[in-house]
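Record format v2
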Amino acid sequence: MKIQVRLDRRQFARRSLQLAALCLLAGCNRLSRSPSVAALLESAEGLTRRVQRALRPRRSMAREFTEADRSPVFPGNGTTSPEDADYQALAASGFAAWRLEVDGLVERPARLSLGDLRRLPSRTQITRHDCVEGWSAIAKWTGVPLRTILDQVGVGPRARYVVFHCADSMDGTGDRYYESIDFDDALHPQTILAYEINDRPLPIEYGAPLRLRVERQLGYKMAKYVMRVELVETFAAFGRGKGGYWEDRGYEWYAGI
Amino acid sequence: MKALLVYRHRFPTRLSHWVTVLCVPILVLSGFQIFNAHPALYWGERSDGERAVLAMRAERTPRGTLKGITHVFGRDFDTTGVLGASRDGALGIQDRGFPNWATLPGHQWLAMGRRWHFFFAWAFVLNGLAFAGYAVLGRHLSRDLMPSGPELRAIGRALRDHLLFRFHHGAAADRYNVLQKLAYASIIFVAAPLLVLTGLAMSPRVDAAIPALPAVFGGRQSARTLHFLLTLGLIAFTAVHLFMVLVTGFWNNVRSMILGWYRLSSGGPDEDSSAT
């Protein structure tokens, strides 16, 4: 009799645990679709950003590696061959007609050719690229520090973000890739607009002719096929207003983690 | 039967226990969701495809169905249905690392997995810091969790008793035994901090600010692998823990962790109450 009771109790306990697990899964799945829950979960991003940026020194540098540390193959992730006709035309002529537009809240808007960019002081860095998916690869990047270009055009007093407009349309949606960073990263010495990977001109796979490197954030911040750099007060007017193509699809704007 | 109620778990212990109970399943399930975005593990800084120490993948069989394969240290295992390829509702067998029932959200949704993971990571960390503060300052650590010299010397006997399911009853069960102390102390003060630190070592911003952190774990990909292994360890601990809760008096254990009061029996070894 007693043994029976005990078994029932155990069975009950086991069932309760199974039920709790199922409720947790089903509940969390449903909660994932609730805007208020999503907003609550997203509140952690602000905390992460503030705490991570409070880590000293503020201008901490991402680790730079040696030539020997480089990945044998660097994955060409995201768009690897933009199908947009305007981009294809530029690529066909070796980007001779390509110009980087720098405008928005700047004092002197500029149009820069690849030659103009190459004549500016450059920076070379061997860094680790961390994808939001979880993989890491190391490559050598050469380009112009974004700060050099910003100094040249003069940052307007109201500018708070730097938006990067790209040439590649995503998933046939017609939405072109874009990204944004604030001045914490825009003025960082390792934030460069790169035109070379591993000592050769950037191939199309890696974002030719110019891609962004933001070494203290995840890969999706590092826009490829950059066509235009725009300084803005708010990025609410672009895409769905979250500051980037992937941000518009639920990823964090602050991708330091 | 004479029974004696003792006040076993204080309020901070109970509260932090249940916050942990909420956080850990969500962290594990959302962690598997994040893992599924690149279901492979490596050693070092980089993730060179051919050097994965563990990888899950799906392969198409000649009959057109998907076969799940788990690659561990150079060997392939057929894990169809669970790892590599598993059933996803009406979609049938799909290419997935961990199956639907082991991830949060259930289907592939990395962005939402990250939202769950980082929100509850904060809850886990703040809860852990509060508990550690209480355990040290409130002497919970020195009084209840640190095994004494004599206890450690008698560990062989304690181990044998446990393996033979001879649990202490009555007055001796008022306090944690040496195996409980070692298990709880190592989970709370070793495994949990390492889980948080290996997690942080995957953050590019933290790596820039504290280069020593990824370095001590052997690189970012090593930190990711250790994070995964520690998670498996935490799951194993939880399984043993739940088993012990069940076999040593489920309701008595649960009541003491909710209300604090634990019933010590003065009866024989058949009594349904003892240590967890």
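Chain A touches chain B through 56 residues (CB under 8 Å).
The two ends of chain A are 57 Å apart (CA to CA).
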